[in-house]
Amino acid sequence: MEDNTPRGRESISLTSVAIGLDNRGADLLESLEEGRDPAGNSSPSEVGDSWSKAGPEPFSGWRRRLQPALRVRHFCREHAQLFRWICIGLLCTAYTAFLLAACILNFQRALALFVLTCVVLVFLAHSLLKRLLGPKLLRCVKPLGHPCLKLWFKRGLALAAFLGLVLWLALDTSQRPEQLVSFGGICVFVGFLFAVSKHHRAVSWRAVFWGLGLQFVLGLVVIRTEPGFIAFQWLGDQIQIFLSYTESGSSFVFGEALVKDVFAFQVLPIIVFFSCAMSVLYYVGLMQWVIMKISWLMQITMGTTATETLSVAGNIFVSQTEAPLLIRPYLADMTLSEIHVVMTGGYATIAGSLLGAYISFGVRAEILTTFALCGFANFSSIGIMLGGLTSMAPQRKSDFSQIVLRALCTGACVSLVNACVAGILYMPRGPAVDCVSLLNTTLNSSSFEVYQCCHQAFQSTGPEFSLEALDNCCRFYNHTICAR
């Protein structure tokens, strides 16, 4: 029978591909070091017997030539840990020298690297102290784990938070009563969500109040304190600098003309660049570590489950379709309540890549963050959410379709609650506006300062506001509130 296989060509087997390529040199070293036959699988005793029968050792020349390499390899194996620490020490020394040189040459330019280094050192010190003193601290606080003490601690903390909120509203809103409107908005939206809930008795008020409390404290630090505001503004500037690197790459690939004139070549490269940066951070394990720390804080305070907390924490950095990838193995077994939380977190947040695209337009990061409170709670996102989750867990498509509209409504309300919290904490910065000088000029655009000054002018009974100022306010409102 004639063979149709081409001569001189061997058939390809998947066995060698699955096993991998053999390292002939390493195999030879191992066989000579262990006294085995490099060409076979004979034991050292069998090799010795065969060599004794055959006369002089056939591989004695090879052994003499490779003896220095065998000694070096044996030495490296015995002191592998020492070499590892030496390499780490050299890298740390080089990084320290680079950081010192950068800080000496231009400290403002090296400030971001300096801050990141300090943050890493703080967490490394925390991990070292936890490893050394963790068991001792646990033994010290073990008596505080008594149920009665925990109950009284929770009640005392709740009472202190309630009294602090009442005192805050009494003192802070006395100067700006319009902030009470935002506080009323929070109560209305929370009450509405409770009214339309399917299971009123299953509502976890601990998660509700702890979530609002954490958001209030974070907003208080960022908006009301000068260091927090400066840090947030600095962080926005660093993000803008980081995303501006995309312009150089886009100009190199597409040309400066397309980048300047075509909208798609301005925005899409930023999204790709940010996504690639997130992928690299995921690969090295940094993003998982950051998300786990955030989810740990949320879990111990609000008492939520690990899967839903991990997904919500991931929404801070990635989009509504990428965050569920963190909990993909658990989607098939999650309850409807947990899936509802995952969807709501996607609707109520904005992706970091899209925020970076908005920042590239030249608008300040804090203004974009304010408008980003709107989140993704719109009907066009329903298909995105269903498509992403269904591709991960096709067997639960009916469950996803059942709660997607309720999650959309919840995400919209959560975005509005975020805006209400920002409204309570808002305080105008900069010098006070001179309403008399402002209203005596022609009002070409609307702003909150113009609204406040006109409101003050209409309520004023003194002669400080001229007829021209009142007429400007009337024309500003299109004569809708001015009596004629």
UniProtKB/TrEMBL annotation:
One of its GO terms (molecular function) is pyrimidine- and adenosine-specific:sodium symporter activity. It comes from the Eukaryota. Residues 185-256 form the Concentrative nucleoside transporter N-terminal domain. GO terms for cellular component: plasma membrane. It is a multi-pass membrane protein. GO terms for biological process: cytidine transport; uridine transmembrane transport. InterPro entries: C_nuclsd_transpt, CNT_C_dom, CNT_N_dom. It is found in: Cell membrane. This is Solute carrier family 28 member 1.
